[in-house]
Amino acid sequence: ITPLTDRCYITLTQALKLDMGAAPAGPAGTGKTETVKDLGRALGLMVQVYNCSEEMTKETMEMVFLGLIQSGCWGCFDEFNRIAVEVLSVIATQVDTMEKALKEYRLDKTKTKFDFTPGKSIGLVASVGIFITMNPTYAGRTELPDNLKALFRSCAMVVPDFCLICENMLMSEGFKEAYSLSRKFTQLYDLNKDLLSKQMHYDWGMRAIKAVLRMSGKLKRGEPDLDEDSLLMRALRDFNKPKIITQDWPIISRVIEDLFPNCKADPKKDPKLEAAIKKVCKDTKMQEEEGFVLKCIQLAEILEVRHCCFIIGPAGSGKTQIWKTLASGMTEIGQEAAYEIINPKAFTSRELYGSYSKAGDWKDGIMSSVMRRMSKSMDKYARESILHRWMILDGDVDPDWIESMNSVMDDSKILTLVSQDRIELTSKMHILLEIGHLRTATPATVSRGGVLFVNETDIGFKPYWDSWLEEFTKETKNDIARGVFYFSYNSYLNDAAWEDLKSYAPVVPVVPLSCVQNLCKLLREFYFESSTRKEKEKQVPADFA
Can you spell out the DSSP letters for 321-371? Predict the structure, then answer.
């Protein structure tokens, strides 16, 4: 228990003693929800976590409060300030009624019933508690009304003592030198914040630390006799590499070398999966390019410790092919993978998560129905052989829809709907978000998922060119044209030529892969336009130019 947790426990229990609610507030990854859950667990009480959204109405909140009051459970309302202001005013009245009933019960133990709303008398279980957590300054948040603020005892959650937490977790994972390793770990993350460029997808907070420590424990159990410094160095290097941009990697690699001198640890490999990915590449007429295979392996490693992953990169960098190839590779080694693709930007929040009709009937949303089928093994997911169930969200991240998934993306792993339905994310399920950037995402969203960043140079357009040239040669059986094309490629499409092209400003943004795709199509058409073979061979260099 860190000093921050201790202070938070005291504040929460004082609030309960005063028959008030409690409101831990602070930045993402400081442990607001987890502290409430841990306290409830220590007292033997059930804690129900609800992810609040703009769709919540006074009727749905009334249903929640009725259930909590009569069962004596604790309710933890995440992102409480996302609820509309007009609804918050009604909630203030509802909470005030409950707190007055609790005060009356303390004075007279026979008063176990009270009128929650006029004419609706309900039983009261005194162990009930209402907790709200908030990220005050993030997008899409509203200011709480004063009459609601007065009903809750606030608790400021600041950045916890990472060093103490690291030491404790390393010991629990079986590390003997936990004290010195925890210092190195936190020192590396502090230096990363200062030395690396400011990227929206960089997160050096508590959730990122926990993921690396889980990976370290897995490596420790796999190779218990290996030096502990080398194990932690390998975890820090291999787990952070997928999210680092090309320009920053030399900096972080030097820092790791300085913190762990004379430590050498080769990356842990999965030869079976690597061979399967290469086979899939061959079967789908793609190149077994080293950078592409590495990205597939890195995605598999992230999914082992994180149930949610952002695949970030510019258009044409190969994001879609990475997860599709990995899914096929896993199926190849006997771990069948199935997935559903959704474009969240094509729907409203009500269409994604479900809503009530005017008649009061609940209609499931697209995302909630897909998650329900995966979670409860319905339809095509009924087969036990499907070990990996992925929900692919292919579209820009927007706080309007992504914030409603906060409880799914964190350790709660539960999608809470306005209908009070709760859909659990099972161990077989993963959420992959394929996006171009995280500029519009809040830190609360960024910290909740692993990141695979695909740089433009990681894969590039060379594999596409090689695949097209192979198919072209098979079709035309003309080795001379192949040789000329290959020579022309090295002359016209080298790095210097691309740098020169970047100096021109196109009317619309163009990605390099798109240019090469168009070039290949034009070359093929020009080639087949020529009437004789000799004429074709003479025309090839001119066509390329």
Answer: HHHHHHHHHHHHTT-EEEEEEE-GGGS-HHHHH-EE-TTS-EE--HHHHHH
Q: Which of 233, 249, 129, 127 minimizes the C-alpha distance to 180?
A: 233
pLDDT tens sequence across 409-452: 888 888 988 888 889 999 999 999 999 888 888 888 888 889 99
Average confidence (pLDDT) over 484-490: 79
Distance CA 391, CA 434 (A): 11
CA-nearest of 139, 80, 73 to 407 is 80
Q: How far is residue 28's CA from residue 160's CA, in Å, rounded to a whole number?
A: 11
Helices (H), ranges, 145-288: 146-149, 162-172, 178-195, 206-222, 228-240, 249-259, 271-283
Q: Which of 157-161, 197-201, 376-380, 499-503 has the lowest mean pLDDT?
A: 499-503
Residue 129 pLDDT level (bands cut at 50, 70, 90): very high
- What's the alpha-carbon Rg for the chain, to the nearest Å? 28
Distances (CA, A) of 454 to 185, 201, 434, 437, 440: 25, 12, 11, 11, 19
Residue 518 pairs in a beta bridge with none
Q: Which long-range contacts (CB under 8 A, 24 or more apart) does 137-142 make?
A: 138/399, 138/442, 138/443, 138/444, 139/399, 139/440, 139/442, 140/54, 140/82, 140/399, 140/400, 140/403, 140/442, 141/79, 141/81, 141/82, 142/81, 142/82, 142/83, 142/84, 142/85, 142/88
What per-residue confidence (pLDDT) applies to 128? 92
Tokens representing 296? 């597939």
Q: 475: buried, middle or exposed (CB in 10 Å: 19+, 13-18, 0-12)? A: exposed
C-beta separation of 72 from 45 below 8 A: yes
Helix/strand/coil for 199: coil
**Per-residue confidence (pLDDT) for residue 339, from 0 to 100:** 92
pLDDT in tens, 57-82: 888 889 899 999 999 999 999 888 88
The DSSP call for residue 171 is: H
CA–CA distances in Å: residue 165 to residues 207, 364, 388: 12, 40, 31
DSSP state of 50: E
Residue 218 in tokens = 């897995």
Q: What confidence score (pLDDT) does residue 374 get?
A: 92
In contact, 179 and 167? CB cutoff 8 Å? yes
Nearest to 342, CA basis, from 410, 414, 401, 428: 401
Tell if the pTM clears 0.70, that is, is over it.
yes
Nearest to 455 by CA among 256, 244, 276: 244
Widest CA span in the chain? 104
pLDDT tens, 83-95? Answer: 888 899 899 999 9
